[in-house]
Design goal:
The complex is a heterodimer of chains A (622) and B (362).
Chain A lengths: L4 H6 L15 H4 L5 H5 L9 H12 L2 H15 L1 H4 L7 H10 L3 H7 L9 H30 L14 E8 L6 H18 L3 E4 L6 E7 L1 H26 L2 E8 L3 E3 L7 E4 L11 E12 L10 E12 L5 E6 L4 E3 L2 E11 L1 E6 L4 E6 L3 E2 L6 E7 L6 E9 L2 E3 L5 E3 L8 E9 L19 E3 L10 E3 L3 E4 L5 E5 L9 E2 L6 H7 L9 E10 L3 H20 L3 E10 L2 E10 L6 H20 L29
Parallel strand pairs in A: 22-24
Antiparallel strand pairs in A: 1-27, 2-3, 3-26, 4-6, 4-25, 5-7, 7-8, 8-9, 10-11, 11-25, 12-13, 12-23, 14-15, 15-16, 16-19, 17-18, 19-20, 19-21, 22-23, 26-27
Chain B lengths: L1 H56 L5 H6 L7 H16 L9 H28 L7 H22 L6 H18 L14 H43 L17 H33 L8 H19 L8 H24 L15
Helix pairs in contact in B: 1-4, 1-6, 4-5, 5-6, 5-7, 7-8, 7-10, 8-9, 9-10
Classes of the chains: A alpha+beta (622), B mainly alpha (362).
Chain lengths: 622, 362
């Protein structure tokens, strides 16, 4: 890269904050007509409120402040990866509270569980964006003017620039030097225009010159990048207010309707009307999953999850659709994601008279990779007391050496359901909201399992067991053969185990899926702005902005050809560009004049001592 | 197919260890090269001093040479001339390049190691029937492969063989460490990873990492060179003979400013790739998890790294921050990349739980 600082001091284009490396020096700003610069001059005697405001604004929009804010942003983001966050990991936060009861309130006060919406994190990024906007607006104005301005006048001494070349061309006798010079500069102009430079001629004072500039796209890209970032922030912020997400568990064969009361949880943005959701319905027809066979590495690993749904939009006909991981389903502008799955054993409870008082497929939540699942059945009415059943479901049950059951494979090879029966008060009579997935045993008596001395009810699909106290029966329905019902007593014994081997249980238990339904119209805009930011970044980092000058001076039957280039910003190739231009142009001129150029003076010959500006910093070259 | 898969995978493991051994040899060769450069630098300095002494001896000393005759202190002009030569050597191509024998051995070995490494990666991919970067071990394998590939590709353009011992050393450590600690047998791809974005997102992230690694190495050298230049300048001004200015090989390397400019060029390309990683990751997250951004731990660190390198690019353009400070930012940035790959993957809880290091999680 190469750059002349004496040049950039005089004329700051593209406009940058004052502490930009290519920006105007503070000292140069003194005596400038620009009021803003004058305000920062060391000599200003006293600042009024407006002056202080200007000073503060200038500080905020300086490169240094932006840089510090950027680094602060990086540092401030880190705690959110160390401490669990309420948005990303709510269970982790609860766990943290249990594990560190003393530390928790302090960290919570510091908003460390909501880092990314905390006051201090927001302050940093908002200041950063204000700084960015304050920096970009004046640059926009300046760049708008610069794009319409003519390339600058050719400097008097091109040899003062870092990258310059010169050559002398002796003309044949009888050739008019002035005409040849004019032709030569026309050729240079064409050449530069062909290389997509904006060109302007500055002839006069006995010489012909062309001034050219290219790479305005660099600053355009830079501005575009920064504006696009603001766009991303706005799209995220505004979009969030119109976004909603909701979760719902659907058991095979049942239907979900997109309305508020059908969701098990619903998080609307600020401007979402929960009563005016797009009506559509989803029915789970089938859920497919494949498990890696027990003989392979990664045995039991689940994959290829597919939920087959029938969707129906308002006024539309029913349609068969699929939801897979990574392939959400689009329905009526919403996206439906497959978040989880599990078994939903159908349980029928009859009273002592044989009347059905409960008949439902209950989603059992998976507890491990082999789908050991936990579920709860609550029966408030129809029996002598309120009844709670806490059930474990083992798709492939195998007893441990301790006698406890476990599941050894996630598919339905040897499915067993065990139920612990609780009787008493379910605690739902007073309207207290209770989770359907947990049972609060307070106020209830355990009748089977645990320390009661009575075995848990143990059922395989198609089997029925008696409730304690002869209150009735519980049936674990075999979906493949819903009418089958064998009455069993006590534990599963070896003979029944033998019986089960060879029986195909693969369709004996229903599945459920948990779906997440999202509405987010802003994500497209975020993507558009992100794409613009990348485009801007590419231009800002890789398009070289440079000025080129060519001057031809006719003198005593010869032409003196001078070339110089000036990089505006990072430009590792400027020296090569100047050399190539000089070589190509000198060759074409020589061809036109049918003579050969004399040995050209090398660019590296140092500027004469009287050329050096006092105080000019030494500038190395890459 | 488990039997063929097993044998292909074990072949892959053999190739990995062969590649590591070859890289280790390359590292040794490059290190010998650096030490020989140190010797060469001292010889050159002594020779220069001898010349000056001879001139002084015949009484032909000019004002400038008498200044340098006060011991083995180089004049500023000598330093500049050497820097010019180093800068030219940096961009010299083909036959115009220096041909230091140990560096050539190092590069040849690196190429050989690369071929074994590539074979190891490809066989692992074939054995698993998918792209070989879907757990920690495979990601390390492919990531290091790309670091070597980028280094070797850059050698065509710039003579960066002085980075050879850093690159091969880093590769030996990362590959060896991964092969020992992260190796896992091939398991089927977890459902969330079955996406075209696995190919794009992870590959581009590895590429960015490779470029950041080069920028990091250059920034470290830049800091060393800045220190040496400062000391050399002080010594030249004070006229003190034989002042220690740091490792000798630095004397034959490009100037700090050249190193910085080169580091910047790698870092900005890396930054573009990283930006793309971030966006591709968001698109994937929007398909897989139902949101494009959720401040998952890995997302946080990707963001932190992006901001650090954005800071680096701004620092390069801020008065008072160019040079030492921006070099430190490049170093901190790469440290964050390494932290993100190792510590965050292994110990931080989050959705990017595909390291394969823990059983469980689906």
């Amino acid at each position: 890269m190469s750059r002349s600082r004496s040049e950039s001091g005089r004329d700051a284009d593209p406009l940058r904050p004052s502490d930009h490396i290519d920006g105007a020096d503070e000292a140069d700003a003194v005596g400038s007509v620009d009021e803003k610069d004058a305000a920062s001059a060391v000599t200003s005697p006293r600042l009024g409120p407006l002056g202080w405001a200007r000073w503060a604004w200038r500080q905020l929009t300086s490169m240094r402040t932006a840089l510090i804010l950027l680094l602060l942003l990086a540092i401030a983001a880190v705690p959110g990866s160390i401490v669990p966050q309420r948005t990303a990991d709510p269970n982790g936060v609860t766990q943290y509270q249990t594990d560190h009861p003393d530390l928790f309130p302090i960290l919570d006060k510091l908003q460390l569980f909501d880092v990314y919406s905390s006051a201090w994190f927001s302050a940093i990024y908002l200041l950063l964006f204000i700084s960015l906007i304050g920096c970009v607006i004046p640059r926009l104005k300046h760049h708008w003017k610069a794009m319409r301005a003519l390339p600058p006048r050719t400097p008097a001494r091109l040899s003062r620039l870092d990258d310059h070349r010169a050559a002398t061309l002796t003309l044949a006798d009888g050739v008019d030097a002035t005409t040849a010079a004019a032709d030569a500069i026309d050729a240079a102009e064409r050449m530069l225009r062909g290389a997509r430079y904006r060109v302007h001629r500055y002839d006069g004072r006995g010489s012909y010159s062309v001034s050219a500039e290219r790479g305005y796209l660099r600053e355009t890209g830079n501005l575009l990048f920064h504006i696009a970032l603001v766009g991303v922030l706005i799209a995220v912020g505004v979009g969030g207010a119109f976004t909603y997400t909701g979760q719902r568990v659907i058991v095979q064969g049942t239907t979900f309707v997109n309305q508020l009361q059908d969701y098990s949880s619903f998080n609307p943005g600020r401007f979402v009307d929960g009563n005016a959701l797009d009506p559509f319905s989803l029915t789970l027809d089938k859920f497919d999953v494949t498990y890696t066979p027990a003989s392979d590495t990664g045995a039991g690993q689940a994959g290829d999850f597919v939920a087959h749904l029938t969707t129906k939009t308002e006024g539309g006909s029913a349609q068969q659709d699929e939801v897979r991981v990574n392939h959400p389903l689009e329905v009526a502008g919403d996206r439906v994601y497959l978040m989880g799955n599990g078994y939903a054993p159908t349980i029928i409870v009859r009273d002592s008279a044989g009347k059905v008082i409960y008949n439902e497929s209950v989603p059992f939540l998976p507890q491990d990779n082999n789908m050991t699942s936990l579920g709860v059945v609550k029966i408030p009415d129809g029996l002598p007391q309120q009844l709670g059943l806490v059930g474990f479901f083992y798709p492939t049950m195998q007893p441990l050496t301790t006698g406890a059951f476990s599941s050894v494979y996630p598919d339905l090879i040897y499915p067993v359901l065990t139920l612990n029966v609780y009787a008493g008060d379910l605690g739902i009579n007073d309207g207290t909201p209770r989770s359907v997935y947990t049972l609060d045993p307070t106020g209830m008596t355990q009748l089977t399992g645990g320390t009661t001395g009575v075995n848990s009810l143990e059922l395989m699909p198609g089997q029925t067991a008696k409730l304690p106290n002869d209150w009735g029966t519980v049936t674990f329905v075999n979906e493949a053969d819903p009418s089958a019902s064998t009455l069993v007593t006590g534990s599963l014994d070896a003979s029944k185990t033998m019986q089960a081997v060879g029986t195909d249980y693969s369709a004996s238990v229903k599945r459920f899926v948990s779906l997440s339904i999202h509405h987010d119209a802003s994500s497209v805009w975020v993507l558009v702005f992100a794409g613009l930011a990348v485009a801007g970044l590419l231009a800002a980092l890789f398009v070289p902005r440079r000025r080129m000058w060519v001057r031809v001076t006719p003198k005593d039957g010869a032409l003196r050809l001078e070339y110089a280039g000036l990089a505006r910003g990072e430009d590792p190739a400027i020296a090569v560009a100047v050399t190539q231009l000089a070589e190509r142009h000198a060759k074409s001129v020589a061809k036109a004049a049918k003579t050969a150029p004399q040995a050209s003076t090398d660019a590296s010959d140092a500027p004469a001592g009287d050329d050096a500006t006092p105080g000019e910093a030494h500038n190395g070259r890459a | 197919m488990p039997s063929t898969g097993f044998s292909l995978d074990s072949a892959s493991v053999m190739l990995v260890w062969t590649a590591i051994a070859i890289y280790a040899l390359a590292f040794i060769a490059y290190t010998i090269d650096l030490s020989r450069r140190s010797v060469a630098a001292i010889d050159a300095k002594d020779a220069a001093t001898e010349d000056v002494r001879e001139l002084v001896g015949v009484g032909a000393a000019t004002a400038s040479s008498s200044a340098s005759s006060r011991g083995s202190v180089e004049t500023i002009d000598q330093v500049r001339a050497r820097q010019e030569r180093a800068a030219e050597a940096l961009t010299a191509r083909g036959s115009r390049r220096d041909r230091p024998v140990w560096a050539r051995i190092g590069t040849t070995l690196t190429w050989l190691g690369f071929l074994f490494h590539l074979a190891a990666d490809v066989t692992r991919g074939i054995a698993s029937g998918r792209v070989p970067w879907s757990n920690m071990y495979e990601f390390a394998l492919t990531g290091t492969l790309l670091i070597v590939a980028v280094y070797l590709a850059v050698l065509f353009r710039y003579d960066l063989r002085f980075l050879g011992s850093f690159i091969t050393g880093l590769i030996v450590l990362l590959m060896g460490g991964s092969a020992v600690a992260f190796y896992r047998e091939i398991t089927p791809l977890a459902d969330p990873l079955k996406s075209v974005w696995l190919v794009v997102h992870v590959f581009v992230a590895s590429l960015a990492t490779a470029l950041f690694a080069l920028a990091f190495a250059l920034s470290v050298l830049q800091l060393m060179q800045i220190r040496r230049e400062r000391r050399a300048l002080a010594a030249a001004e004070a006229g003190t003979a034989g002042a220690k200015t740091g490792p000798g090989f630095l004397r034959l390397l490009p100037s700090a400013e050249n190193l910085e400019s080169l580091a910047y060029r790698f870092a900005i390309i890396g930054f573009i790739f990283w930006t793309f990683t971030l966006i591709a990751g968001s698109i994937w997250a929007n398909d897989a998890w139902g949101r494009y951004w959720g401040f998952d731990t890995k997302e946080v660190w990707t963001f932190v790294i992006w901001v650090l390198y954005a800071g680096y690019i701004h620092a390069r353009a801020t008065r008072g921050w160019r040079g030492t400070r921006s070099a430190w930012l490049s170093i901190v940035g790469f440290a964050a990349v390494m932290f993100n790959f190792t510590i965050v993957n292994m110990f931080f809880k989050g959705l990017h739980a595909y390291s394969g290091l823990t059983t469980g999680g689906s």
